[in-house]
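assembly run, all chains below
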Amino acid sequence: MASVSSVLVKIGRSVGGVVGTLYQAGRDSVDTVIRNVIPFMAFISFIIGLILTTGIGDWIAKGIKGSASSLPGLLLISIVCALPVLSPLLGPGAVIAQIVGTLLGVEIGKGNIPAQYALPALFAINPQVGCDFIPVGLALGEAEPETVEIGVPAVLFSRLVTGPLSVVIAYLASFGLYSSAK
Amino acid sequence: MNLLSVGYRLAEVTVDKPTGVLGALATGAEDFIKVFNKGGSVLLSLMGGILPTLVVLLTAVNALIRIIGPEKIENLGKAAARPGIQWYPVRYIILPFVAVFVLTNPMAYTMGRFLPERYKPAFYDSAVSFVHPILGIFPHANPGELFVYVGIATGISQLGLGLGDLAVRYLLVGLVVIFIRGIVTERITARMMSKKEA
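ok done. output:
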C-alpha cells in the first residue's frame, strides 16, 4: 500500500512539474508579447498608416527606390550604417533597423522594390547591429576592462569590412529567390 | 421630380466639395482620422496574423528550454574556447547559434565567459549579429526586435509570395556572415592587443 501511494505521489509530482513548467512558459511568452512585441506593433502600425495614407510614402519611395533596388545602392546604405561614428548611434533597440525595414517592406509590397532584394536589404539595413551594446555585451561575457577597451573599436572597425561584405554575400545568395516575381 | 433633382444636386454639391474654412477643416479631419484608421487596420492584421503563432511558439520553445535546462550548453562554451583552426566553426557558428537559440538576446552574450579574453570581442560580434537572422524561423530568440525581419517580410507576403524561402536563406546567410565576422574581429582584436603590448 505504501509503495502504491509513493508511486502516486511521484506521478503527481512529475505531472505537476511539467504542467507548472508549461504554465510558466506560457506566462513568460505572454509577458514578452505584451511588454515588447505589441507596443512595437502599435508604433509600427502608426508609421505604416502614415506612409500609406499621406504623400510621405511616395516621397520615401523616390528616395530609396534607387538605392534599395541596386547592389551599389545597398552597399552604400550598409557602409553608412557601418561607419564607426554612426553605428553606435543607429544601434539602440534596433529601432532604426526596424523602422527602415518596415519602410522597405511597404515599398516591396507596393512593387517599387523587387522582391528578390529583400534578402540583401535585410543585411544592408543592419550592419550596426549591437554596436551600441558592445561594452555591456562584453561585460555579460565577464571580459576584463582592457578587453572592452580594445573590443569596442575592434568590433566597430570589423563592421566596416563585414557590413558591406554581408550585403554582397546576401546578394549572391538571393539568386533564384522570388525570381519569377520580377 | 424637379424638386427631387434639385435636392439631389444640392446634396451632391455639399458632400463632394465642402468649401470655405469649415469645408477645409472637415477635409482635414477626415484625412487625419484616415491615417489612424489605416494604422488600426494594419495593427489588427498584425495582431491577428503573427501574434497568435508567436505566443504559441514562444510558449513551446520556452517550455523546451526550461525542461532541457540552459546550463547544459556550458560544455559547448568550454569546447569553443580551444585554440586551433578546427574550433573556429564551433566558436563562431555553433556556439552563437545555440547561445542565441537557448539563452536568447541579451543573455546569449554570457557564453563569452568560457572563452579567453582574446576571443571575447569576436564572439560578441558573432552572437549579436545572429539575433536578427534567426528571427525568420525562431522568433522567440529576440521578439522585441521582430520587425527588422517582419517589416520586410510583410511586403513579401503582400505580394502573395511565401516566406519560407526568405527565412531559410536569411538564417543560412546569417550563419556565413557571423562566421566571417568572428574571424575578422578576432584578427583585428589580436592585432590591436599586440600593438598595445609593444
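Residues 116 and 177 of chain A are 6 Å apart (CA to CA).

Chain A touches chain B through 87 residues (CB under 8 Å).

not gonna interpret more than that til we talk
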